[in-house]
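Support request from a user on the community tier.

User writes: "When I paste my structure tokens into the form, the page sometimes reloads and wipes my input. The last time it worked, I copied everything first. Here is what I submitted, just in case something in the input itself triggers the reload:"
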């Protein structure tokens, strides 16, 4: 897992800085959930319930607990995870983001039974929301707006969450993933959001717009988890075996490691020059590390090299150009179109950076199940 003569020393040092920022964040937000922080002051905008990002704070605390091995850190992570229970009854496909990332890392040494129970309840709630006619778990109405949407950010987390509950869950996970891929990949660049009409057709949504920074990273993450969790199970519009998912992964990923492809993408195609999204880069790095691991496990070592190399380059760029001295990943963009936190520290950016660094240093693997 080393890159260059320096090995992973740089990653270890960056991860140590991230843990320092986690301690600062914990002291600042208390029992609330951090959302985004001002890059100048480091002050967090926080929420009482966690919104769709709460699982990333819980997941970051579980990663810290894995690194430190202390009972105090495990207790803090477990308490944070328990506070996610509010979202069990909410109608939202982001239950995948909330409950997978908020519970999966609790399955390590000294498995947390309360987190495992919460994950199982969340998976069953998501399965109950699956719409077999449209082939997906709808975006839902928990955050307002139309319910029957397919959105790229409704894929990651939901695929492994559903797949872990039953064969019906695996079939639902495959249907949900392949429905989103078929819609998104129908356009170039992939369009993140689509609305279902009563007659069964789908219409492209204007928001998030095509060219959104996190569209491809979220989809890559979902595909990687699908390949890991589902294999050849289910049937769908991309075919009834893992080969269709590999093809989708290649369509999404191969252009990313072409010569000249940026390591940190613009927040949105057409956004003001210099407005980047480091959180999208961190998500992509983890997805690529997963794809590289899958290729190696399948004996396709030549196919593991490009994604692994790009993931390393992304993480190195993030830690050298965008990581503050106290471990905050700056330069993330929450919502470019609305001007919300356009150049800020984002809690999911911190989480995925930490996870990527944890994989490079051997603290954990790219998969958590």
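"...and here is what came back when it finally went through:"
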């Amino acid at each position: 897992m080393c890159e260059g003569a320096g090995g992973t020393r740089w990653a270890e040092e960056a991860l140590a800085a991230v843990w320092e920022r986690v301690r600062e964040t914990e002291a600042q937000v208390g029992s609330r959930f951090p959302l985004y922080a001002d890059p100048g002051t480091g002050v967090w905008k926080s929420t009482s319930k966690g919104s769709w990002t709460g699982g990333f704070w819980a997941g970051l605390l579980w990663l810290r607990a894995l690194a430190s091995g202390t009972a105090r850190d495990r207790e803090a992570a477990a308490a944070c995870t328990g506070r996610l229970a509010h979202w069990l009854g909410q109608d939202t496909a982001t239950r995948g983001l909330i409950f997978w990332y908020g519970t999966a890392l609790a399955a390590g040494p000294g498995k947390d039974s309360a987190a495992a129970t919460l994950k199982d309840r969340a998976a069953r709630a998501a399965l109950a929301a699956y719409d077999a006619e449209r082939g997906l778990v709808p975006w839902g109405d928990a955050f307002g707006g139309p319910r029957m949407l397919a959105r790229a950010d409704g894929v990651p987390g939901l695929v492994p969450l559903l797949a872990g509950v039953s064969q019906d869950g695996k079939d639902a996970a495959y249907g949900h993933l392949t429905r989103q891929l078929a819609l998104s990949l129908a356009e170039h660049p992939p369009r993140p959001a689509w609305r279902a009409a009563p007659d069964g057709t789908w219409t492209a949504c204007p928001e998030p717009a095509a060219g959104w920074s996190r569209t491809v990273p979220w989809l890559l993450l979902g595909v990687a988890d699908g390949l890991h969790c589902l294999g050849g199970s289910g049937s769908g519009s991309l075919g009834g075996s893992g080969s269709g998912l590999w093809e989708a992964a290649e369509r999404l990923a191969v252009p990313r490691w072409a010569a000249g492809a940026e390591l940190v993408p613009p927040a949105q195609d057409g956004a003001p020059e210099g407005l980047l999204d480091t959180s999208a880069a961190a998500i992509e790095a983890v997805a690529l590390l997963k794809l590289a691991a899958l290729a190696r496990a399948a004996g396709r070592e030549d196919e593991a090299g490009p994604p692994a190399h790009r993931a390393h380059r992304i993480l190195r760029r993030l830690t050298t150009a965008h990581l503050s001295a106290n471990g905050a990943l700056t330069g993330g963009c929450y919502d470019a179109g609305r001007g919300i936190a356009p150049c800020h520290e984002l809690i999911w950016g911190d989480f995925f950076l930490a996870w990527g660094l944890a994989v490079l240093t051997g603290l954990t693997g790219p998969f958590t199940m």
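Agent notes: The reload is a front-end session timeout and is unrelated to the input. Residues 25 and 34 are 8 Å apart (CA to CA). The radius of gyration is 19 Å. Escalated to web team.
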